[in-house]
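Good morning N.,

You mentioned wanting to compare the apo and holo forms, so I went ahead and generated the holo version with 2-acetamido-2-deoxy-beta-D-glucopyranose. This is what I fed in:
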Amino acid sequence: MQNLGLIFVLLLFVNVVCGVETEVVEAVSVILGDSVTLQSEVTQIQRNDVFEWRFSGHRIAIINSDRNNKVQAEVTEKIRDNLQLDHQTGDLKIRNIRTADCGLYELDINSARGSSKKSFSISGVASDDTKVVLVMERDSVILPSGLSEIQREDQITWKFKDTLIAKINETAGIFSTYDDVLDGRFRYRLHLTNQTGSLIVTNVKPNISGLYEINISKSSSRYTMHKTFNVTSKEGESRQSATEGNSVTLLSGVPEIHSDDVIVWRSEHGDSIIAKIDRGKVLTTLDGADGRYSGTLELDSKTGSLTIRHIRTEHAGLYHLDITGQRRTIFKRFFISVCSQNWFRYVMVVIVVAVLLLVVIGAIAVIRCRQTQNGKYYKKLMY
Ligand SMILES: *[C@@H]1O[C@H](CO)[C@@H](O)[C@H](O)[C@H]1NC(C)=O
Ligand SMILES: *[C@@H]1O[C@H](CO)[C@@H](O)[C@H](O)[C@H]1NC(C)=O
Ligand SMILES: *[C@@H]1O[C@H](CO)[C@@H](O)[C@H](O)[C@H]1NC(C)=O
Ligand SMILES: *[C@@H]1O[C@H](CO)[C@@H](O)[C@H](O)[C@H]1NC(C)=O
Ligand SMILES: *[C@@H]1O[C@H](CO)[C@@H](O)[C@H](O)[C@H]1NC(C)=O
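and this is what came out, ligand included:
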């Protein structure tokens, strides 16, 4: 009997413990500098609702709805200037996440329908600002989603200056781009990559410079990740000319590459990658196409600049440099023209031939002139 009682108490205890543990802590991993919205999962605050957001146990925000459903929302932690409350849903947006913002966030909802609690544990990964993307006009730009692969539940939206331009609903298998918006400036220019949901904008024009935002959420999770890119287009490409046999250096334009940067040099010949620095590892003469670069390439491991030695006419053309890292994305193009050394020989031959021609023409003229003068002399003699 005593044993049964003990088991009963134990069962009760287990139940209570389980009751507490059913509260799941959602783990949210955010790239520092990005933003995140923690969702209340309430579509509309009802009258008499009280929402309280806490960070590490301290109250940071409170939302009250009175009897007439007049909502009052307040961030109580004044030093946190990066918090924003949604007055309709009670969602908490944390912008520009810093290390100090990482930790446990809790939401208590007290309403006439009962009370509930949600917890989020935010951890920060690496450092990131608004990504600055520099792209040459007429070139293409890839804005990475940051996902290695889209998962079944992922919902992705892309906006340009607050206008929806692309959407992915992986659950429904829908990949849509909206290139009619904003007077059609994106027409035929928007593409989504199937695997990662990254946005590709082709044939860049100045009027598509500006802020791009991606939101990523999962249907099963209660938060949305945001990432912004500041895209600026720049006119033209850098042009360089060289004489066959000399060296040409294409400058990356960055003083130093970061440890997380991936540097890729591509040549238009076969659109192949010819040199690469991937997280500190230098690879040159990857030489996709046909061995035309073999033994000619030198990559500066500090700056990422590329030198082509003993350049030949077959190296002329367009080169692309892509720098992608946590903190920046840079796309550049270079156009190299190569003068053949034979060119000088041709010019010399042409000059010599021209001089010879002049001499011959001069000689003929002199002879003709003399003949005419002789004719006149004979005419004079006859009178
Ligand atoms: C991302 O979500 C926020 C609200 O959480 C919204 O204001 C913003 O427009 C959304 N951006 C995109 C790209 O969907
Ligand atoms: C995505 O598609 C699923 C299935 O069709 C649908 O239930 C869900 O509401 C869609 N999500 C969005 C954000 O449109
Ligand atoms: C955007 O710029 C391109 C080229 O500069 C121009 O042809 C196009 O009409 C512009 N579109 C809008 C909507 O301004
Ligand atoms: C992406 O998916 C679409 C539709 O399923 C398909 O038509 C297209 O070929 C795919 N593209 C790539 C690069 O896999
Ligand atoms: C985006 O970059 C441009 C040029 O670098 C700058 O003038 C602009 O202020 C930036 N915008 C934002 C929102 O950072």
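The helical segments are 2-21, 181-184, 342-382.

Happy to go through it together on a call whenever suits you.

Best,
F.
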